[in-house]
């Protein structure tokens, strides 16, 4: 390369900072630190915490929500959101319970659960990408719509009597204390991390979230990418519905009530920008573990559920506000 | 003489006004005087400093040097409110109005008449709004929400708003740009009424017919300097055009020996319901085809349709002699047509993402294996094209938003070159970038053409059009108004064709 004006050789390096610096500055490292602190606090708070079976039980506090959170992370990075996920669980679970009445077996139930998830995701996706409606409004609507249908079907009844082999998906253990759901959690974490960070599709998600116009101008089919993400979120909600229904062994219309808030909290706590364009799956994984540990720890201390929801709410606001506060303080000093 | 409608004492006088921005002298010792009851036309090319002057007049910018006198006393406009208090008000090209508010609220926003407890006195506001609207001859219901009005009526509201503060000086910045002929006539009547009211009017326009229709005086700016001023009766249109463009070609353009090859692109009958109609032209290999026209002539709108962002209502495109259907940017890119948009920050670059990811975004299939990105290949591709463009950056991992405008543009151009296009459309490629980057972009365009790439360059800068193009198409009101080969090109011809003013027969 020629040096044109002699002032400086124009050797632009690929990166300014090596991998260690990037890791040290990352949100994920901070999260991991918080997770360790909470873990240590829990060991002090209760002598029962370190029991392997107790720890294993703790993972059920986050696994099913995390399945959805992985897909939700992609959706939020692309600049959209799906608040109907808990509604999808209710509808998918109701559909499975209803099918149960006709003697459909475990494989059929799973197919029905996943299909309902996909159809609900497609419904959201079409409304957002074809009609150009804002996803936050669409999915607040479908949130009540989907759960409303299960209330109509079930009233104050419940579907019971799921087959014994079906229970494996919620209560099964693959090896010693390692549950089927935990294994699924790690598999999904790996798949979603791969898709988001190492594929062209993942790169396009970031581009759309940062600047949808420039993404369109760069030849990205924005509507198609978003449609796929809504389908994925629906599918993951369907999977969560199968696991949760199997674990509970029954379906009530209030199943997974208000889960959408915890899922979004997980995603945002994991460092995904609520405005879109930034975030990582590793962050969401750590955030899921943190939320699981906190709920479990508070449970061991016999803290009532209401206090837990206060804690989750405070956590969500804190996570969004703290980075901004830090920036305000910094710029305030600079000025 | 005591008749203050025709006094020779200016209401407002600017002298020796200089304004510099980092690296650019926007205005250099300019003079301007505005007289009561008279319309002064301010003419000049894009970039001559007209907008900067308007911003100084309205208190948005502060001059580095020079005096502002109102009625002979020196004053300063440190804020927009100060300018308004001194009686200077402006009607901009794109007026900021609020669709959800009523006409009266829009007129009095920020200075609504107050009643008891500081609440807005609606009856007084309605009465005053009606009075102002009648004064400008607008038959509008002051209680109607603005969103129910057409563009022309909104314009009248903007004018009424300007007059609701006791204005003595009215600045009109290209007020006819978005109006139809009938609406323009109404605007002329309004200007006449304002003149009769004794207002001093500064009228900024590119259109010569309207300047000669309504102006009493003229002032010509060129490259931030005032080159001439006088009475409109003492000047001809030809002389005015000459003063506007009669510049030394201070920008140095690369020497080009172009020998355009076979025709590669043929556009026939491209039309859009509102933006452009019946566009026909061909583009040869290795050719730089300039598109000149006034702002709003439909050039960008046509280019975006050609790139598949918007849909044309009719028309066809042939690439290499074969019919090409382009329904989306993705299809355009696949067929080898790429577009560097005018609005870099919104449409061109993704400023919150690193340089290398911006460059590879449309070429991900080149730098990946079965859909998985290969970052080393990405860096290599980004390096290849950014080095050719002499990009100045700390690292390729740096976010595009941290670069200067010129370097951002280099990233966007690199992004498109990496797709190995056949036709590249550059929309105002050097707008708002520094002189050094400008030269780099020009040199690079010449290089690309020499290598056989076909270039369409949309530009509103006459020197750039003259310096770079093999052939120039001039657009006016959404249609092709004229076409010139390089050797028959003069600045005067371009300005005339763009403004719709034909050479005088005499």
Low-confidence stretches of chain B: 1-6
How confident is the prediction overall: mean pLDDT of chain A? 88
Overall geometry of chain B comes to globular
Secondary structure: number of strands of chain B:
22
Query: How many independent structural domains of chain A?
Result: 1
The number of distinct helices of chain B, counting runs of at least 4 residues, comes to 17
Quaternary class: heterodimer
| Major beta sheet, strand line-up of chain B | 6-7-8-3-9-10
| The level-1 CATH class of the domain at 12-245 in chain B | Alpha Beta
Structural class of chain B: alpha/beta
What fraction, in percent, of the residue positions of chain B are helical? 25-40%
**Interface with most residues:** A-B, 31 and 42 residues
Main sheet: strands, sense, barrel of chain B: 6 strands, mixed
Name of the CATH architecture of the domain at 12-245 in chain B: 3-Layer(aba) Sandwich
Radius of gyration of chain A: 22 Å
In DSSP terms (H or I, runs of 4 or more residues), the helix count of chain A works out at 15
Question: Structural class per helix/strand content of chain A?
Answer: mainly alpha
- The total count of strands of chain A amounts to 2
Task: Summarize the main sheet of chain A.
Answer: 2 strands, antiparallel
For this entry, give a set of tags:
heterodimer, A: 335 residues, mainly alpha, ABC transporter involved in vitamin B12 uptake, BtuC, two-stranded antiparallel ribbon, 15 helices, 2 strands, globular, disordered N terminus, B: 506 residues, alpha/beta, Rossmann fold, six-stranded mixed beta sheet, 22 strands, 33% helix, Autoinducer 2 import system permease protein LsrD (chain A), membrane (chain A), transmembrane (chain A), ABC_transp_permease (chain A), cell inner membrane (chain A)
């Amino acid at each position: 390369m020629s040096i044109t004006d002699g002032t400086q050789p124009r050797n632009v390096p690929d990166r300014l900072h090596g991998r260690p610096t990037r890791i040290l500055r990352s949100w994920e490292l901070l999260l991991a630190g918080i997770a360790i602190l909470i873990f240590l606090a829990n060991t002090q708070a209760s002598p029962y915490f370190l029991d392997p079976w107790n720890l294993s039980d703790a993972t059920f506090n986050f696994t099913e929500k995390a399945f959805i959170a992985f897909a939700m992370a992609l959706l939020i990075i692309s600049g959209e959101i799906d608040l109907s996920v808990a509604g999808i669980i209710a509808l998918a679970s109701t559909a499975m319970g209803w099918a149960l009445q006709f003697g459909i077996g475990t494989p059929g139930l799973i197919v029905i659960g996943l299909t309902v998830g996909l159809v609900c995701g497609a419904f959201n996706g079409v409304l957002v990408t074809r009609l150009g409606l804002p996803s936050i409004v669409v999915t607040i609507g479908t949130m009540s719509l989907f759960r409303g249908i299960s209330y109509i079907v079930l009233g104050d009844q419940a579907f019971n009597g799921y087959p014994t082999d079906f229970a494996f998906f919620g209560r099964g253990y693959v090896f010693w204390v390692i549950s089927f759901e935990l294994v699924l959690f790690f598999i999904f974490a790996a798949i979603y991390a791969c898709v988001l960070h190492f594929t062209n599709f993942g790169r396009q998600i970031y581009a759309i979230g940062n600047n949808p116009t420039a993404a369109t101008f760069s030849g990205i089919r924005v509507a198609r990418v978003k449609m796929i993400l809504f389908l994925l979120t629906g599918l993951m909600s369907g999977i969560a519905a199968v696991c949760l229904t199997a674990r509970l062994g029954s379906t009530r219309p209030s199943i997974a009530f208000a889960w959408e808030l915890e899922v979004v909290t997980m995603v945002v706590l994991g460092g995904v920008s609520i405005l879109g364009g930034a975030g990582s799956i590793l962050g969401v994984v750590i955030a899921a573990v943190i939320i699981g540990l906190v709920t479990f720890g508070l449970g061991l201390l016999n803290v009532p559920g209401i206090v837990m929801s206060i804690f989750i709410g405070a956590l969500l606001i804190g996570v969004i506000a703290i980075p901004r506060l830090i920036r305000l303080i910094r710029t305030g000093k600079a000025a | 003489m005591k008749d203050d409608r025709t006094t020779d004492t200016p209401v407002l006088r600017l002298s020796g006004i200089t304004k510099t921005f980092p690296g650019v002298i926007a205005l250099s010792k300019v003079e301007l005087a505005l007289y009561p009851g008279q319309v002064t036309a301010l003419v000049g090319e894009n970039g001559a400093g007209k907008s900067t002057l308007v911003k100084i007049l309205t208190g948005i910018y502060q001059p580095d040097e020079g005096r502002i006198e109102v009625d002979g006393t020196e004053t300063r406009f440190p804020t927009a409110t100060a300018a308004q208090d001194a009686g200077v008000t402006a009607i901009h090209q794109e007026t900021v109005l609020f669709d959800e508010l009523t006409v009266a609220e829009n007129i009095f926003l920020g200075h609504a008449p107050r009643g008891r407890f500081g609440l807005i006195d609606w009856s007084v506001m309605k009465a005053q709004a009606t009075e102002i609207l009648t004064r400008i001859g607008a038959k509008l219901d002051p209680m109607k929400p603005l969103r129910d009005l057409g563009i022309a009526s909104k314009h009248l509201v903007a004018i009424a708003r300007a007059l609701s503060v006791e204005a003595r000086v009215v600045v009109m910045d290209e007020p006819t740009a978005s109006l139809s002929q009938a609406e323009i006539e109404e605007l002329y009547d309004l200007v006449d009424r304002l003149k009769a009211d004794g207002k001093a009017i500064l009228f900024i326009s590119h259109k010569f017919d309207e300047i000669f229709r309504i102006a009493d005086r003229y002032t010509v700016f060129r490259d931030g300097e005032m080159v001439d001023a006088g009475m409109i009766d003492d000047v001809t249109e030809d002389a005015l055009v000459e003063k506007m463009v009669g510049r030394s070609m201070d920008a140095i353009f690369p020497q080009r020996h172009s020998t355009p090859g076979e025709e590669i692109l043929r556009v026939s009958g491209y039309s859009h319901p509102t933006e452009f109609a019946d566009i026909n032209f061909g583009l040869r290999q290795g050719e730089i085809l300039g598109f000149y026209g006034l702002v709003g002539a439909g050039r960008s709108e046509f280019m975006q349709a050609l790139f598949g962002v918007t849909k044309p209502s009719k028309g066809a495109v042939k690439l290499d002699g074969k019919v090409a259907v382009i329904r989306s940017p993705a299809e355009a890119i696949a067929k080898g047509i790429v577009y560097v948009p005018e609005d870099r920050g919104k449409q061109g670059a993704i400023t919150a993402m690193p340089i290398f990811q911006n460059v590879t975004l449309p070429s991900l299939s080149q730098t990946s294996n079965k859909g998985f990105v290969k970052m080393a290949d990405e860096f290599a591709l980004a390096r290849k094209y950014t080095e050719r463009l002499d990009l100045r950056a700390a690292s390729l991992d740096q976010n595009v938003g941290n670069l200067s405008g010129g370097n951002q543009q280099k990233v966007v151009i690199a992004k498109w070159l990496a797709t190995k296009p056949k036709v590249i459309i550059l929309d105002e490629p050097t707008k708002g970038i520094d002189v050094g980057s400008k030269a780099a972009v020009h040199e690079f365009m010449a290089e690309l053409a020499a290598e056989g790439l076909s270039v369409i360059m949309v530009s509103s800068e006459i020197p750039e059009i003259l310096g770079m193009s093999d052939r120039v198409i001039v657009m006016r009101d959404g249609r092709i108004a004229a076409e010139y080969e390089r050797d028959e090109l003069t600045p005067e011809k371009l300005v005339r064709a763009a403004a719709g003013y034909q050479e005088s027969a005499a």
